[in-house]
Amino acid sequence: MSRTEVVSLLEAVVKDRGVPKNVKNSIEESLEILRKDDKNNEKISEAASILDEISNDPNLSVYSRTVLWDAISKLEALK
Question: Has this prediction a pTM greater than 0.85?
């Protein structure tokens, strides 16, 4: 699993019209972190933490939540 694949997953969620704006903003924040630092484990953890926090949003669809969980697990594997 590469960082590029995680970024692609997250970009797909951001493009989904059914995702709440606050969730999109947090995903964008995670994407920015992932795009900046290539091999910093602390930054990967920070991005995963942000995604984990928003995955509990009650307005998030089951599909989007599953994609976020998938992205989190792939980020954890990168550490």
Answer: yes
The per-residue pLDDT for range 64-76, each reduced to its tens digit, is: 999 999 999 999 9
Number of domains in the chain: 1
Contacts of 17 (CB under 8 A, 6+ apart): none
Domain that holds residue 40: 3-78
- 4-46 pLDDT, tens digit per residue, is 899 999 999 999 999 999 999 999 999 999 988 667 788 899 9
Summarize the chain as % helix, strand, coil (round to 5). Answer: 75, 0, 25
